[in-house]
Amino acid sequence: DGHGTRVVIELEGKYLKGRASVDEYLELTSIANPHARIVFIAPPQAGDPGPVHTERPRSVDELPAETREIQPHPHGIELGILIQMLERTESTQLGAFLQSDFCRVGPGTAKSICSAAGLTSNTWVKKVGHAEAEKLYKAIQDAKLMAPPTDCLSPIGARVLLKGLESGLKPDFIAVSSRPPAVYRGRPFLIEAGVAFGGDLPGDETARVHRFANRVPLQYQQSACACFKAVVETDWKRYTLSQPRGSLPVGPLVVMIHMASVWVPFTSESKEAIADYDEIRKEMRLALQDCGRKLGVYLNRRERMRRQGERRHIFERYIGEIAKACESITGEPAEPLYEALLRTAQKKTAEADAMLDEEGRFIGKKDRLENDDTVFMRERPAGEDDDEPAPAKAQTPEKPTKKRGRKQDDTLFDDAQD
What sign does the CA torsion over 9, 14, 18, 20 have? Predict the structure, then answer.
């Protein structure tokens, strides 16, 4: 119909909602693929007049960059695979075979590999037996080769990942990190991570971990996945979050990890969990730490603004009482003292107004988070409820009146003491 590839599958099963369901799978798919428009027609449930249509519109218009096919890297093969390649190659000479059937192997490298194996570049491939193949395999593993190219990978990208998390979760804060490509057993891979905090996410539950392999959600066997282990190993307390020992952090937090690779090492044929290898888990942990540092800056800023707001509120609450008490002791009018104390209170809290606005962002100087294109902070509409009181600018407290009755005075002092 002119709209690309269409896949039609007929399945018979029981339709359920909630965690690890079709609905969650499509929700996660839209986060990792924000360029896709997903329309889901759910089976009618009890009380529904008919099928329920759910649409997830695309949040970005550009398509992912097209990947390029590469040949295997010599350091990523095993002896049996090398023997099969020698049997199936169209090259007649060993040097040509190494250059055409592998990547990152030039004429000089091919010549040195053949020499280390006791062969030459002109050796006929058909004459390479099992013993010669073993020597060739050892020479390949000992050779110093460039890392494989990474244009075969299809990462989501920091900007696109921000859009996907923003439209899918609608949190207050998002930080993402995209690691440089790395190599595992000769195969290139790339790790991307993101953390979403606040908004409508539940604050009294453990963080949710969303795992992806080549943009495909992984919903089962979470505890056996390297992604889950990397999240647990990360010290989230360093970023002002609560974390029980050996468990996930607690709070309104969602952690996302995506692995893009030409060969994702799964734990089983079901492809539900990424195998736990040191190289892969290290990259995941580094990406999470990068996101955690940005989240820590944001949370520390909110806490600092909350303390400044409470300090200002205390100042303004007692200024009128102090001025009135001094008037009753000294007989001097309360108005000048009140104005002087008010100016002092504004001066003591002026630093917060000069440096940060009500959203906790810097004014008049470079902002680490504001100018970071891997961070998103939601603008809260004026008057929106928040768990923390926003430190507003200095309000004008109620000025002391000159005529007050004893009963009113006692009530005011009692409130101040409380």
Answer: negative
C-alpha–C-alpha distance, residues 63 and 57, integer Å: 14
Pull the structure tokens for residue 37. Answer: 């428009």
Half-sphere exposure for 149 (CA within 13 Å, toward CB): 12
CB distance 303 to 367 below 8 Å: no
Reported residue count of the chain is 418
Tens of pLDDT along 339-349?
888 777 767 66
What span, in angstroms and rounded, lies between the C-alpha atoms of 287 and 257? 9
Backbone angles phi, psi at 174, to 5 degrees: -135, 135
Report pLDDT digits (tens) over 234-243: 999 999 899 9
Are residues 188 and 261 in contact, defined by beta-carbon separation less than 8 angstroms? yes
Note the pLDDT of residue 390: 42
- Model pTM? 0.72
Spatial CA neighbour of 174 closest among 56, 287, 292, 37: 292
Single out the residue of 367, 372, 371, 343 nearest to residue 355, CA to CA.
367
Model confidence pLDDT, tens digit, residues 317-367: 778 888 888 888 888 888 888 888 877 776 766 545 544 443 344 444 445
Q: Are 269 and 262 in contact (CB under 8 A)?
A: no
Angle between helices 79-88 and 130-142 (to 10 degrees): 120
The residues with which 189 forms a beta bridge, in sequence order, are 182, 261
Q: Which helix (H) or strand (E) holds 22?
A: helix 22-32
Three-state secondary structure call for residue 191? strand
Residue 380 has pLDDT above 70, yes or no: no
How many whole angstroms from its chain centre is CA 117? 46
Q: Which residues pair with 210 in a beta bridge?
A: 256
